[in-house]
Amino acid sequence: MLARTVEVTRRYGDTLALDRVSLDIPPGGVLGLLGPNGAGKSTLLNLLVGLRRPTSGAVELFGGDPRDPARRRQIGVTPQETGLPSTLRVRECLEFVAAHFPDPVPPAELLDRFGLTEVARRQTGGLSGGQKRRLAVALAFAGRPRLVFLDEPTTGLDVEARRALWDAVRVFAAEGGTVVLTSHYLEEIEALADRVVVLGAGRILADDTVAAIRAMVGIHRVTLTAPDLPDLPGVVGIEQLDGRTSLLTPDADQLVRDLVRAEVPFQGLQVSPTTLEEAFLTLTGR
C-alpha cells in the first residue's frame, strides 16, 4: 500500500474536518476525491503528505511517517495555491526543484509535456494564471514520483490546457504511477479516475468506480421531446434544454410504460445512466 489512513479524525478547534476516515491508496491508477467545499478533501491530502498531523488515528506513507523526508521524496504535490518566486524564470523553477532529487525528469521534458516551452525564459511573475497553474503541476512531476497528489490542478486553465494536463496524468498512470486528484470539475473525475471517493462533512460517503457510484444512487435520465407532459409517478427531477425534456427517475422502464399508458405523443426518447455530477449531488445531499 502506497499510503493509507486508519480511523483518522482531524479537528481545527471546534471544527471537525475529518471524522474517522479510513482510506487505502494502492499502487497504480487515478483516485478521484470529490466533495463540496468543507468536505475535508484538502485536509485529507495535507495529512497524507505530512503537512498536518491527525487529531487521532494513523496515517502512513510508504509504510511509515509521512513527515519522513525519505518517504516524501517519492511523492509529488500540487496544492490548491502555489507561491512561485516571481523573479525566477520558468526553467529555473524546474531546475531548482529538480536539484532536490537524485534522478529528476529533465526540465526540457517537463516544459514540453506541460506546454511551457515557449515561456521557459519568462519570469514566473509575468505568467498568466493558467501558465502558473501548469508550472505548479509540472513541479509535482519533477522528481519522478511514485505517487502524485493534485489538489484542484486545472483551476484557471482553458479547455485546451486542461485536456493537455489530462493527457499527462493518463501517461503517468499508464506507466505505473499513482495519482490522487481532487477536482470541482466532475467531468475531470469521470475522464481520469479509476476509483472515486466521495467526501461529505468529513466522512467517506462512497468509495467505488464511477459506474458503481452512478448505480449506487439509482437515478436514470429519460430524455424526450413532447408538447406537454402530465404529472408522472417516480419522477424526482425535471430539466428543460433546447426544447427537450429530461426526466430523472430511479425506474426508467416504469416511466416509459407510464408515458405510453398516458398516451403522451413523445419522440426522440433516450435513456441514459446518471452523470457523476448527479450522483455526487445525490450522495452529498444525503
What report would you give on this structure?
34% of the residues are buried. It is built from 10 helices and 13 strands. It has helices spanning 41-48, 69-72, 90-98, 107-113, 129-140, 159-174, 186-192, 210-217, 252-261, 276-285, and strands spanning 3-12, 15-25, 29-34, 56-61, 75-78, 147-151, 178-182, 195-200, 203-208, 220-225, 237-241, 244-249, 267-273. The strands form 3 sheets. The chain has a 6-stranded mixed sheet, with helices on both faces. A 4-stranded antiparallel sheet has the order 11-12-10-13, covered by helices on one side. The chain has 2 domains: 3-208, P-loop containing nucleotide triphosphate hydrolases (Rossmann fold, 3-Layer(aba) Sandwich), CATH 3.40.50.300; 218-285, Alpha-Beta Plaits, CATH 3.30.70. Helix 3 (90-98) packs across helix 4 and helix 8 (210-217) crosses helix 10.
Count of distinct structural domains: 2
Cα gyration radius (Å) = 22 Å
CATH class of the largest domain: Alpha Beta
- What structural category characterises the helix and strand content? alpha/beta
CATH architecture of the largest domain: 3-Layer(aba) Sandwich
List keywords for this structure.
Alpha-Beta Plaits; single chain; 286 residues; 10 helices; alpha/beta
Summarize this structure briefly.
About 30% of the residues lie in helices and about 30% in strands. The protein contains ten helices and 13 strands. A six-stranded mixed β-sheet has the order 5-6-7-3-8-9, with helices on both faces. A four-stranded antiparallel β-sheet has the order 11-12-10-13, with helices on one face.
